[in-house]
Amino acid sequence: MEEQRIIGDFDTILSEDKVWKIGGFPLPDGTFWEYREPDAVVIVRNGILYVRAALSRQNNQVQILDNAKHMYYSIDPVKVPEAGEVSFELQIRARSQNTAPDDLYDGYVSLNLLDFTTGAALDFFAGNDKYASVYAILPFPGIEVPPSDKTRFFCIFKEDTNFKPREFNTYKITYNRANDEAVFYLNGVEIRREQNIPLKLNQFTIALGIMTEKDLSPEGSVSVHGQTVIAEWSPITVTTMEGAKAPKKVESGE
Question: What's the CA dihedral at 135, 138, 142, 145 to 10 degrees?
Fold first, then answer.
């Protein structure tokens, strides 16, 4: 059985208590680290969420807190079918100013599917002239990741330039719990398949972000130097299928 719904309602984005909220993580001292650029400009027009942010936020101690600069979380996570698959599809346009040439990780726009019960993340990152798909299990602050006799934490990026730079592209991620498999699609073509995912993923919080990915130096954060990132996201189409088989591989040109 297939069920489809649209998660958007960006006209409610300022309420931060209906469909979307500002992302972040609780800290050990009881405070909350917000992924919020204080001077971000937010526009909702024709159903599209537009955010322009001059990057300023930094964290000198925790890498994950330094990476995301401005991010929205879906308030209600999407539950994964026990014996089926779930897919997320949307359009993203990314443009930036004063980012380093040919360096995606100096400032980009993201779709993040975050499972806060396992630490798993399935992502797309889009920049001015390059994009990446991401498969990870991460040490999110305050999240207990199950122990493993293999590599417990990892983040595998795969970059490519075969997309429409600075224009809208269609991104889709499908996760099949029964098959322990995630498939990434760009503009309708499969570009990556991850098999033998070591954990059963349970639910996904959808995150829409403006981010960097710069390793902390011994002196702290080096992720901000005057960049501006302009992000646009369409509503997300979420499709769940109980008892779904592994998705057929789609070759370029089919």
Answer: 90
Question: Would you say residue 252 has pLDDT above 80?
Answer: no
Give per-residue pLDDT as tens, 42-81.
Answer: 999 999 999 999 999 999 999 999 999 999 999 999 999 9
Q: Which of 200, 59, 189, 44 lies closest to 117, judged by CA?
A: 200
CA 87 – CA 111 distance, rounded (Å): 13
Q: What angle do CA 93, 95, 99 make, to 5 degrees?
A: 145
CA atoms within 13 A on the CB side of 149: 0
**Rg of the chain in Å (alpha carbons):** 17
Is residue 103 predicted with pLDDT exceeding 90?
Answer: yes
Sign of CA dihedral 50, 109, 30, 78: positive
Closest CA to 206 of 136, 116, 121, 113: 113
Helices (H), the chain: 63-67
The full set of domain ranges for the chain reads 2-77+91-169+206-235
Residue 250 has pLDDT above 60, yes or no: no
Residues 6+ positions from 142 with CB-CB distance below 8 Å? 25, 26
pLDDT at 142: 85
Could you tell me which residues come within 8 angstroms of residue 214 by beta carbon, excluding any fewer than 6 positions away? 66, 67, 105, 106, 221, 222, 223
